[in-house]
Amino acid sequence: MRLAILLSGRGSNFQAIHEAIAARRLPAEIAVVIANRPEAPGLGLARNAGYETHAIDHRLYKTRAEHEDAVIALIDHAEVDFICLAGYMRLLSPPFVRRFQHRIVNIHPSLLPSFPGVDAQAQAVEHGVRISGCTVHLVDQNLDAGPILVQRAVEVRDDDDAESLSARILVEEHIAYVDALIKLGRGAPIVEGRRVIFATRDS
Ligand code: GRF
């Protein structure tokens, strides 16, 4: 299973995927790592790990479509099975999502459909929920809304703030992302409406 990783920042989810592959827990190959910000620390991590990396700075393109075309050209060239969004802070246009239907994976730091959008962990603390967590999902045309692959729960403590909750959710994100990719690696899932049925090894 060949993967493209798209990121914008820190890159800890990329790092978790990389480590799982290196440890042979995840039978996959990272074919290309693309960032929309040249200064993204995650891009440096990927470069140091020896991957093909590209900075495709959205600020240098006139339109979203032109920027996406540059990203798509790299993804096509890399011939990947899945595109993993790992802290990629750009909305994907409907044509982009349609082109790679059920092949774009995202991670979000809440138990969707609760708290989509930015600052999900702060939203959870403010709302007073007792359980939050993370969600790995297929990307559709709505923000943080596609069919769910894997979720992991995290208890919200009385003394939590957004930062402390984020740190505990992040630990679970790294496990969840790898788990979702292991499951996808067994074969293309069946997507029935919102429900995902993973392939088993013998199917
Ligand atoms: C994670 O919290 C992820 O859920 C969200 O963006 C953050 C990215 O973190 N989509 P990192 O760059 O993978 O460390």
CATH fold-level topology: Rossmann fold
- Residue-averaged pLDDT: 96
* H/I helix tally: 6
Q: SSE string, helix = H, strand = E?
A: EHEHEHEHEHEEHEE
Shape: globular
Number of E-state strands? 9
How far is the first residue's CA from the last residue's CA? 17 Å
The CATH H-level superfamily is: Formyl transferase, N-terminal domain
Task: Give short descriptive properties of this protein.
alpha/beta; Rossmann fold; seven-stranded mixed sheet; globular
How does this structure look, described?
The chain is an alpha/beta fold and 203 residues long. The chain has a single domain (2-106, 136-148, 172-197), classed as Rossmann fold (3-Layer(aba) Sandwich). The chain has helices spanning 12-22, 41-48, 64-78, 94-99, 120-127, 162-184, and strands spanning 2-7, 29-35, 53-55, 82-85, 104-108, 131-138, 148-155, 190-192, 195-197. The strands form two sheets. Strands 3-2-1-4-5-6-7 form a seven-stranded mixed sheet, sandwiched between helices. A two-stranded antiparallel sheet has the order 8-9. Helix 1 (12-22) crosses helix 6 and helix 5 packs across helix 6. The model has no long low-confidence stretch (mean pLDDT 96). 5-O-phosphono-beta-D-ribofuranosylamine (GRF) binds next to helix 1, strand 5 and helix 6.
